[in-house]
Amino acid sequence: MEKPLTKNFKADGTPATLEEYLQSGGYEGLRKALAMAPLEVQQTVKDTGLRGRGGAGFSTGVKWSFVPMGDDAPRTKYLIVNGDEMEPGAFKDRLLMEGDPHQLVEGVIISAYAIQASTAYIFLRGEYRLAAERLSQAIGAAYERNYLGDDIFGSGYDLDLYLHTSAGRYICGEETALLNSLEGRRAIPRAKPPYPQVSGLFGKPTIVNNVETLCNVPHIVHYGVDWYKGLSKTADAGTKLYGVSGRVRRPGAWELPMGTTAREIIEEHAGGMQEGYSLRGFLPGGASTDFMLPEHLDIPLDFDAVTEVDSRLGTGTLILLDDKTCAVRFVLNLEQFFAQESCGWCTPCRDGLPWTVDLLQDLVEGRGRLEDIEQLERMTGFLGPGNTFCALAPGAMEPLQSALKYFREDFENYIAKKVRVAHG
Ligand SMILES: Cc1cc2nc3c(=O)[nH]c(=O)nc-3n(C[C@H](O)[C@H](O)[C@H](O)COP(=O)(O)O)c2cc1C
Ligand code: SF4
Predict the structure, then answer these.
(1) Is residue 341 in contact with ligand 1, taking CB distance under 6 Å?
(2) Which one of 392, 397, 398 would you pick to mutate in the ligand 2 pocket, going by the greatest count of ligand atoms within 8 A of its CB?
(3) Ligand 1 contact via 212 beta carbon (within 6 Å)
(4) Which of these CATH numbers, 3.40.1000.70, 2.40.300.10, 3.90.550.10, 3.10.20.600, describes 239-322?
(5) Is the CB of 397 under 6 A from ligand 2?
(6) Which of 314, 333, 350 has its CA nearest to residue 400?
(7) Which residue owns the Cα nearest ligand 2 atom 8?
(8) Residues 6 or more apart whose Cβ sits within 8 Å of residue 192
(9) Topology classification of domain 18-229
(10) Residue 23: pLDDT band by 50, 70, 90 thresholds?
(11) What does the pLDDT read at residue 416?
């Protein structure tokens, strides 16, 4: 099984050095890309069907194609790496940046070349200090070898790459809030349109892509479209860094063909459930996705198949719910995070998330009423898609709405328990 994204990872956890990266074919994709026209690089990525690994799964090549190109295009354009990764349960991008920082640097240079950006930024989660250190070293080494800077490999193409460490809010991962943050403004999402591809950072055309997305690009250019499509088990191309957290024997992350089933990930790679625990459900892609059930274990985890069971692949990092964990407390924990991280820009989210937390807290502390469950159900609509300024609040409602659908007895039990207490 080929594992292009993690092939240079070392067992001792140290990063692949530049020499090791070069020995494994590193920066060959860049040489090849610079000999191609930028639009040809865009087309190659588009032909693979690569879908963004930041959560929404939008086609990377299609997104790039919205950037103005040619002589009339603005001279300043930006490529930004989204390395905020604050979604609970997600840790895949950190592994990529710590394990093989040159892979991301090469992905940035090729992708920036494809859209003819003159400046690139890596927007990094503030707590990722080790990744920051390793990326800084890799960027320095890339400048020394002229993979970055002026006239890269004598091609006439110039690119500067800066590492920016975030002050640390979940909303900074939303791509337009990220732009505001990078400009030194309050990190709140921007209205779309205009889309960043046309008017982004400082009003210039900007592409924001996830770390894992960009790490795929050097391999696509180096080894070609057919090779990349052949890595996957389904029509959704490439490999995927899947992860598991919860009561399994070996929590972790693994690079596997896109479309691997949750059964294989949990039972083979994560070693199965710990002794005495069984699986009740799982969030397939981080905290802001809908629960899937044990009966969904054999569904291929790719972007399309997961939507057929009313969930989303999201980040592809699974969070498991076991039979000894209460679904209400599980969801309460997530809603507390989302309420704390609401940027406060729009009312349904700013007021609705703390209200949701209060309702859940009332339930687990024995103050709940049956009407509160109906109210929670209504909240998933009030905070659902189309009612808020960005996807934070609708994302926060996904684990709640699916917990109400699949684990309703956990909610009702709290009320039944209280009734028993009230009647002695
Ligand atoms: C609240 C919120 C947080 C987000 N956090 C991240 C993040 O940490 N990393 C990321 O790549 N995308 C994140 N996204 C998605 C980005 O807005 C954007 O879709 C993504 O960076 C695009 O990259 P891709 O096309 O390569 O997936 C977040 C979205 C929302 C609404
Ligand atoms: S949905 Fe929440 S996070 Fe998004 S803009 Fe509104 S208040 Fe801010």
Answers:
(1) no
(2) 392
(3) no
(4) 3.10.20.600
(5) no
(6) 333
(7) 343
(8) 176
(9) Rossmann fold (3.40.50)
(10) very high
(11) 85
State which ligand 1 atom lies nearest to the alpha carbon of 395.
31
- Give 421's pLDDT tier (boundaries 50, 70, 90): very low
pLDDT at 196 over 80: yes
Note the ligand closest to the C-alpha atom of 349: 2
Report pLDDT digits (tens) over 395-405.
999 999 999 99
Phi, psi of 355 (to 5 degrees): -65, -45
Tokens 């020394």 -> residue:
144
Residue 417's pLDDT is: 78
CATH number of 327-415: 1.20.1440.230
pLDDT in tens, 328-384: 999 999 999 999 999 999 999 999 999 999 999 999 999 999 999 999 999 999 999
Is residue 290 a contact partner of residue 399, using CB atoms and an 8 Å limit? Answer: yes
pLDDT at 1: 82
* Residue in 63, 210, 214, 216 to alter for ligand 1 test, most ligand atoms within 8 A of Cβ: 210
pTM above 0.70, yes or no: yes
DSSP-derived 3-state class of residue 418: helix
Long-range contacts of 155-161 (CB under 8 A, 24+ apart): 155/34, 157/34, 157/113, 158/118, 159/109, 159/112, 159/113, 159/117, 159/118, 159/119, 159/120, 160/118, 160/119, 160/120, 161/105, 161/108, 161/109, 161/112, 161/119, 161/120, 161/121, 161/122
Ligand 1: distance of its center to the CA of 113 in Å?
A: 22
What atom of ligand 1 comes closest to residue 55's alpha carbon? 27
Q: Do 76 and 83 contact (CB within 8 A), yes or no?
A: no
Q: What residue's CA is closest to ligand 2, atom 4?
A: 390
Q: Does ligand 2 have an atom closer than 6 angstroms to the CB of 97? A: no
Q: Where are the domains of the chain?
A: 18-229, 239-322, 327-415
Arithmetic mean of pLDDT, 34-57: 97
Indicate which residue's Cα is closest to atom 8 of ligand 1.
Answer: 85
